[in-house]
Specification:
The chain is of the alpha/beta class and about 325 residues long. The chain has ten helices and twelve strands. The structure holds adenosine-5'-diphosphate and magnesium ion (MG).
Length: about 325
């Protein structure tokens, strides 16, 4: 049924505990993905995007990472209380993740065929011939010829490797695909091709998706909804048209202003003044206040409320 919630993240807190400090990588995150939706999660480096995804996959490195508070519901089941066995099951056929660097997902000493067959045969009861048919079918959907089955990862270009990784993620027929900056490590020309594949898959297979990016343009191309993340939490959320047409949060406005415009003569970006906050020492009140043009004394003292319905933003002021 369309519209059912696949993933609900509620008040999630994920910290990295070191001897000297507590790094609040994810700090009160709320986010939902419903069936058939593709949600873009956008934010600067260090905002906590990858940590949030790792928490959903139950792969936060521990130590130093801990899920300190909150809930992660996969189709209503709280993954934080589920067993390690159940987590593996869900990673096998419920939620798949594509990482930024394709090499972290591929084993350099096995052919891609061996690796892909292993994925199918561990999670699905298929004979060898059937499994191979399935692998080749999905490889061809993402644009890798079946005759490359016996090649090793180093024989592929970066873009082709990422296609193999996408194949690996899709073989489990996940209900939710998490793609963490899937094209950042690739050449610009290849990025567009890989994005096109992801978009086509989303359309054809109807897989729900959480796409992490620091590029608003990519999100506009692929996603139906967008969540803007700052200092470990969501500061604005809505459908792509809502957020792109009437941007509310001063941070989101800053992100849009920093996109180079095609029509403008200068290629220069207008970056948001100041630096992202140190997650080991977050500002009081609104985490964005030190960089905000609209700040008032209240912003330094009090956490802002979430405003709006559907299209929401976290600010002391109606903007
Ligand atoms: N294994 C780790 N140990 C300690 N700190 C970490 C670890 N992984 C990430 N961090 C810190 O957590 C914060 C959020 O990082 P990350 O989730 O990778 O953000 P993003 O993906 O948005 O760039 C950063 O300050 C980062 O340095
Ligand atoms: Mg990241």
């Amino acid at each position: 049924m369309t519209g059912d919630k696949i993933l609900e993240i509620k008040n999630l807190h994920v910290y990295y505990l070191t001897e000297e400090e507590t790094i609040r990588a994810v700090n009160g995150l709320n986010l939902e993905v419903s069936e058939g939706e593709s949600v873009g999660l956008v934010g600067e480096t260090g905002a906590g995007k990858t940590t949030a995804c790792l928490a959903v996959m139950q792969l936060v490195p521990d130590p130093p990472g801990v899920i300190a508070d909150g809930e992660i519901l996969y189709k209503g089941e709280n993954l934080i209380y589920a067993s390690e066995k159940r987590h593996r099951e869900i990673r096998g056929n419920g939620i798949s993740m594509i990482f930024q660097d394709p090499m972290t997902a591929l084993n350099p000493v096995m052919t891609i065929g061996q690796q892909l067959m292993e994925v199918v045969q561990t999670h699905q009861k298929l004979g060898r011939a059937q499994a191979k048919d399935k692998v080749i079918k999905i490889l061809e959907i993402v644009g890798v010829k079946g005759d490359r089955f016996n090649d090793y990862p180093h024989q592929f270009s970066g873009g082709m490797k990422q296609r193999v990784v996408i194949t690996m993620a899709l073989l489990c027929q996940p209900e939710l695909l998490i793609a963490d900056e899937p094209t950042t490590a690739l050449d610009v020309t290849i990025q567009a091709q890989v994005l096109e594949i992801i978009r086509k898959l989303q359309k054809d297979l109807g897989t729900s998706m959480l796409l992490i990016s620091h590029d608003l343009g990519v999100v506009a191309e692929i996603c139906t909804k967008v969540a803007i993340m700052y200092a470990g939490e969501i500061v604005e959320f809505g459908t792509v048209p809502e957020v792109f047409r009437s941007t509310r949060h001063p941070y989101t406005r800053g992100l849009f202003e920093s996109i180079p415009r095609l029509e403008s003569k200068s290629e220069k970006l207008t970056p948001i003044d100041g630096l992202p906050p140190n997650p080991a020492d977050l500002p009081c009140g609104c985490a964005f206040h030190p960089r905000c043009r609209h700040r008032k004394p209240v912003c330094e003292r009090e956490e802002p409320p979430m405003r709006g319905e559907g299209h929401i933003y976290k600010c002391h002021f109606e903007l």
